[in-house]
């Protein structure tokens, strides 16, 4: 591991971005914030002038010893992952890429996390600080580069999942973690009822599990950690070896499951831990559990209300991943309760008074 800190100045177009935001604010011109555009399917379509962050790229600071990296929002995920790997480190929330052009800004803006999420934490849990372009075109810093620096820290976390509706992410500082010294993936044959019981049992024990999924009568588990711990757990669980690329295919929706048949729509159902199978009448082949059973992907022709009612009864929520133009619903995200919607509206009005940042991306009204 190197002790050096990386500083780069190439790829900094923050001032030009600020100028464009100032002009849009003054003329009340809506902006569609774009990076790699690999997540355009997620959320409602946005009509507006493109604010392209792809050119705002590069690593600003990286201190492997302190486990902190600061990177510009337009930096490609693949480039950041490669740089971290040189020092045997990683983004522990395992952000989905959905394509080579995928950027770190898009990963944070959507707030999506990969298979490791239940065991390591969500995207927002690793954001230490940000530089954000405000509605007035000002470049402001929030948070810092250590977890104990809480000044403005909550605002940085707020940007994770906001999909650019509250401001423009320019730079992001992350806590990174070491790559595990050992890793092994395996598969076990069992139905969904037995798989969920097995996962609940394993979840009560201190085992080195960092991913668990189920599809078509097969339970998939990833073990990561020290060599002796991984070896002992592998021998205990048994099963067949599984190629590690399975998790990347699941994370980036490259698995064959994620191609819906004609008339089907792809949904993500977020469920509380240990939720029994939902009585939706969906074939096993059209279901894919992730996150140890807390995230259920389904391909179905069922209507949005039916899915959301079932999720609500179980204590969860449902999100549509198929764009409206391809048969998805006009409202991909679960409608907000009135009190929560009020807070969302007030926050949007305070941070984006003229509604120029990705208007309608999350909900039609704001």
Automatic annotation (TrEMBL):
Keywords: FAD, Flavoprotein, Oxidoreductase. PROSITE patterns: FAD_PCMH. It is an enzyme of class 1 (oxidoreductase). InterPro entries: FAD-bd_PCMH, FAD-bd_PCMH-like_sf, FAD-bd_PCMH_sub2, FAD-linked_Oxase-like_C, Oxid_FAD_bind_N. SUPFAM superfamilies: FAD-binding/transporter-associated domain-like, FAD-linked oxidases, C-terminal domain. Residues 1-179 form the FAD-binding PCMH-type domain. Its EC number is 1.1.99.14. It holds the Pfam family FAD_binding_4. One of its GO terms (molecular function) is glycolate dehydrogenase activity. PANTHER family: D-LACTATE DEHYDROGENASE (PTHR11748), GLYCOLATE OXIDASE SUBUNIT GLCE (PTHR11748:SF103). This is Glycolate oxidase subunit GlcE. The lineage of its organism: Bacteria, Pseudomonadati, Pseudomonadota, Gammaproteobacteria, Oceanospirillales. The gene is glcE.
